[in-house]
Specification:
With about 700 residues, the chain is an alpha/beta fold. The chain contains 23 helices and 24 strands. β7, α8 and β8 form a beta-alpha-beta unit.
Length: about 700
């Protein structure tokens, strides 16, 4: 109906009809805003001020209308909606229209309006967000090209609604959606393009300032694009989004099925979601000076601040080695972007009356240089400022996390997202938000921030008591030095060996480490009857078991082991024993009964009301009694790392390193990527006991790994 009515109108009547649409769009929201007009060298700019102004940001709204339509009344319509819904001032330039004023009058007027905001109104570019629909959406990108070419600072972001970005109308959707678009036709757009450009020469339509799809968009601000699934201009938005990402710009596209051209302008139910997304986008690209978000520690994290000592903090490292030397300035820029996406990880530890809690960091931490060893002690004063650190060494990016923030899976998502943003900025490539890379233009989902432990409940709570395990020992490094030794395997070879024994890779490697530990104990404890259990602490990722998306801690531990007093064990026997024990321990019912014990304890009124210093004493006693003392060391297998195809040529290696245990000198971690599997063994003693024994065990299996170390 809209299509048939508007198609038969003259240009004068179409302009009047569009102004009436502006009144309809604003509707009842007019009472929520104040209006005035600014004149800048003959250019009229409508200013809409919300009565309830809650944001320091400013929107420069560029109206649509095919470059031929759109007066002050129409522009004020959606400007009123933006101001009322988002709580910020909106400036809407009433740029000159074709055919009276053909290209490039419109982009020049929009540029004049932007310069007025910055130079006269005194608004910082990082507080300005562009918003435009249809032709106005295309003008957003024309403006940014002009700013780039003239050496001006870019705005904070662009909200493009059904942007018209290709005046040649080359997209397939112009034909495929011809019958289902209720408001727009290809023939009308052809007429608009001809009148705007003042020619029928299609080559002229490819001017980048007229058709941004033919422009270089590598330095564009972050984009949020909305488009209807039924509109003829669908491909303009889809191709724009792909081009932005391919050239390293940040972009998010929202395609609403069955919706028409510029649907967010209209007062329909679906627009509640639209404005929620726009609000989130503004908080990401142009954050206000808001109160820092805080949250309670998750159930498993509460033990870590309490268990720390003056010489030990529970810290782990995940790193990615790239193909070229790291540009630290570029990495800092990427980190500035990423920390806003992870409000449960980019945090500092705070002390409350009853519990520790975490709070968003007020500013991005500096990039640190590597020391002679990984995972140096993270002082508690440092954790209070920022509970993670980013470290660069040549071509390697490493992130070290205080374990109260997250586990290996959450840390890996943070690292992947940081590396992806770095590659976008450094090389101008597009990286999609897949394989654990998050879209930094999206706000965190509630499911990412939840304490998933609190959803687990079991009628039966398992006991915490367990037998103590054998601990390796040696001559401690007095200066705190950590020796990290990396065994580098061919992943397929290890998988083949594990399959040969009918076990998983985790069970196989645990058995190898247990065998090595048994050899060390046999050498140091001659009497078999005095030997202790060999037990390996294995973290289990609970996300798949309990269907969780949390980025916080959500692992639990199983502790399979063998008793050397019973005699010698072959590799086959160890594999079978570890596999069987893990199968019995790793199931939802068994895990729930053990986790519920911790959850129920946290919910008891006595513990809730106990002051923090008393809780710390109790938790430290529990940790010392049944924590790491019940295992010989940890073996953490983060599994096979998958990356988007666009990143694979740049990322050459991945590593996971755990800090040493508080009561023992060793810990081990395993990760595989690109056909290689890296086992990192860290120690704080001088003697490489476990490493040598493991090498002998592997040699007996016919496996000859490559070995690296930072040893003195």
């Amino acid at each position: 109906m809209i299509k048939s009515i508007s198609s038969g109108l003259s240009l004068e009547r179409t302009r009047k009809w569009q102004d009436r649409i502006g009144d309809v769009i604003a509707g009842k929201l007019k009472r929520n805003a104040l209006y005035d007009t600014i004149m800048v060298d003959g250019l009229e700019i409508s200013r809409v001020i919300p009565r309830d102004e809650t944001s320091a940001n400013v929107i420069l709204y560029i109206h649509g209308g095919g470059y031929l339509c759109g007066g002050a009344k129409y522009a004020r319509g959606f400007a009123t909606v933006l101001a009322s819904r988002l709580g910020c001032k909106v400036f809407a330039p009433i740029y000159r229209l074709a055919p009276e004023h053909p290209f490039p009058s419109a982009p020049e007027d929009v540029y004049k309006a932007y310069k007025h905001l910055v130079e006269v109104q005194g608004i910082a570019p990082d507080k300005i967000v562009l918003c435009g629909e249809s032709a106005g959406g295309g003008l957003c990108y024309s403006l940014c090209q002009m700013l780039r070419e003239r050496g001006d600072r870019m705005p904070a972001g662009i909200v493009a609604i059904s942007p018209w970005t290709d005046l040649t109308l080359s997209g397939k959707s112009y034909k495929e959606n011809e019958n289902c678009d209720p408001s727009m036709t290809k023939s009308r757009l052809e007429h608009y393009a001809k009148e705007y450009m003042g020619t029928e020469d299609k080559e002229a339509y490819k001017n980048p300032l007229a058709s941004p799809l033919f422009a270089s968009l590598s330095d564009m601000p972050p984009s949020l694009i909305f488009v209807g699934g039924d509109e003829v201009m669908l491909d303009d938005s889809v191709q724009l989004h792909r081009l932005l990402e391919a050239q390293g710009a940040r972009s998010r596209i929202v395609i609403e099925p069955s919706m028409w051209h510029a649907y967010p302008l209209y007062n329909i139910k679906e627009n509640e979601k639209v404005f929620s997304i726009i609000s989130g986008f503004l908080r990401v690209v142009a954050p206000n000076n808001k109160k820092l978000r805080w949250m309670a520690l998750d159930n498993s994290a509460k033990i870590y601040p309490a268990a720390r000592t003056s010489t030990w903090s529970n810290v782990f490292r995940i790193s990615a080695t790239l193909s070229e030397k790291i540009d630290k300035e570029c990495l800092k820029s990427a980190l500035d972007i990423v920390v806003r996406r992870f409000p449960s990880i980019a945090v500092r530890l705070k002390t409350g009356v009853f519990w520790y809690y975490i709070e968003e960091i007020p500013s991005t931490p500096d990039i640190m240089d590597e020391k002679s060893y990984p995972l140096s002690r993270m002082a508690f004063d440092d954790i209070r400022k920022c509970a993670f650190r980013v470290i660069v060494y040549k071509s390697r990016i490493a992130i070290e996390f205080f374990h109260a923030l997250t586990d290996g899976s959450g840390g890996l998502v943070f690292l992947k997202t940081l590396v992806a943003e770095y590659l976008k900025l450094k090389y101008g490539i597009g990286v999609p938000a897949t394989q654990g890379v998050l879209n930094t233009l999206e706000e965190p989902k509630a499911s990412e921030l939840e304490d998933s432990f609190m959803k687990i409940d079991s009628r039966v709570q398992a006991k915490r008591s367990d037998t103590l395990a054998y601990k390796l020992d040696g001559t401690r490094e007095l200066d705190g030095f950590r020796t990290n030794t990396t065994f580098i395997f061919d992943t397929e070879e290890l998988i083949s060996r594990a399959k040969g024994y009918g076990v998983t890779l985790t069970a196989y490697m645990s058995a190898m480490l247990a065998r090595a530990c048994m050899l060390v104990q046999a050498k140091e404890v001659k009497n078999p009857r005095r030997r202790k259990m060999i037990k390996i602490l294995i973290p289990v990722n609970l996300r798949k078991i309990y269907d969780s998306e949390t980025l916080r801690n959500f692992v639990f531990y199983v502790c399979p082991g063998v008793d050397p007093r019973l005699g010698e064990y072959s590799v086959a026997e160890l594999c079978k024993s570890f596999s069987s024990q893990m199968a019995l321990m790793i199931n939802e019912k068994q895990l729930s009964s053990r986790i519920s014990k911790n959850v129920k304890s946290e919910k008891t009124m006595i513990l809730k009301l106990a002051p923090l210093f008393l809780k710390n004493l109790v938790m430290k006693m529990i940790f010392n009694a049944v924590g790491e003392r019940t295992s010989s060391f940890t073996f953490s297998n983060l599994g096979a790392v998958e990356l988007p195809e666009e990143m694979k040529d740049y990322v050459k290696r991945m590593d996971l390193i755990l800090g040493v245990q508080s009561f023992a000198p060793y810990n081990t971690a395993f990760i595989s990527y690109g056909g290689k599997a890296n086992l990192n063994i860290i120690r704080n003693i001088k003697e490489p006991k476990l490493e040598r024994a493991l090498y002998e065990v592997l040699k007996g299996e016919g496996i000859r790994p490559c070995v690296e170390s930072n040893g003195r």
